[in-house]
Amino acid sequence: MLTLSANVNDNIPNVAFNDIYLDGDGNISLSFDLQAVLQACAQAAQTLLGEIIFNVDEGIPYFQTLWVGVPNVQQFNAALRTAFLNVPNVVEVVSLMTSQVNNDLQYTAVIQTIYGSSGLTGIITNA
Predict the structure, then answer these.
(1) Which of the four, 2, 34, 39, 67, has the lowest number of CB atoms within 10 Å?
(2) Residue 99 belongs to a domain with what CATH number?
(3) Is the pTM of this model over 0.90?
(4) Among 60-64, 89-93, 95-99, whose mean pLDDT is lowest?
(5) In a domain, 54, yes or no
(6) DSSP strand E in 1-127: where?
(7) Which residue has the higher pLDDT, 84 or 123?
(8) What is the distance between the alpha carbons of residues 96 and 52, in angstroms, rounded to a whole number?
(9) For the segment 13-57, what is each residue's pLDDT rounded down to a tens digit?
(10) In this structure, is residue 5 part of a structural domain?
(11) How far is Cα 90 from Cα 17, in angstroms, rounded to an integer?
(12) What's the domain range around 98?
């Protein structure tokens, strides 16, 4: 798998969150195999239900599960797990843990792909 690299974890200085960036040689940075799949998973976790105009059934129902009324964390976890499993080359979500810190929901997942497995962390902000 090959994709453009994006600052999905907001850990690259002087690069906006979720923006593409240049590598050390001044070329557009690319992600390969395991890193590309994990990046696609991170982006899937940020996709709101109905946001993709050509597939309104794709995405995570944040408002329905977390931000309106009583939070239903189990339903959110199921939607997040499904979003990860729908990413090409993902074989299994080995583990998924979520926790609420103030108005943010943090997740940590272990994703098994055809390229191997690795951890993924993210923060969902109600802003």
Answers:
(1) 2
(2) 3.10.450.40
(3) no
(4) 60-64
(5) yes
(6) 2-4, 30-32, 90-101, 104-113, 116-125
(7) 84
(8) 24
(9) 888 877 888 888 888 888 899 999 999 999 899 888 878 788 778
(10) no
(11) 24
(12) 37-125
